[in-house]
Amino acid sequence: MRLIEKTDGFSVQAISGTRAVMLAMNARKNALDGFLGFGVGIKPAVGDAIRWLNGFKCFQ
User: Fold this and answer.
1) 35 touches 57 (CB < 8 A)
2) What is the Cα 33 distance to its own chain's centre?
3) How many domains does the chain have?
4) Which domain holds residue 35?
5) pTM score > 0.70 for this model?
6) What is the DSSP string of 1-60?
7) pLDDT tens-place string over residues 5-60
């Protein structure tokens, strides 16, 4: 399965296999002002809470 999402100078492409998901991320330079990092979460259905996965990535 492949999915691409684009918004506000950011784009993410997700490619899923049987055991893993690969994420490719792009951002325009002007979209990175104040960007401190990112996290990945799972949201099973509309209205459900996001369950954040371990391994947040923070930048200095």
Assistant:
1) no
2) 17
3) 1
4) 2-58
5) no
6) -EEEEEETTEEEEEEE-SS-EEEEEEE-GGGGTT--EE--EE--STTPPPEEPS--EE--
7) 999 899 999 999 999 889 999 999 998 888 888 888 888 888 889 998 887 666 76
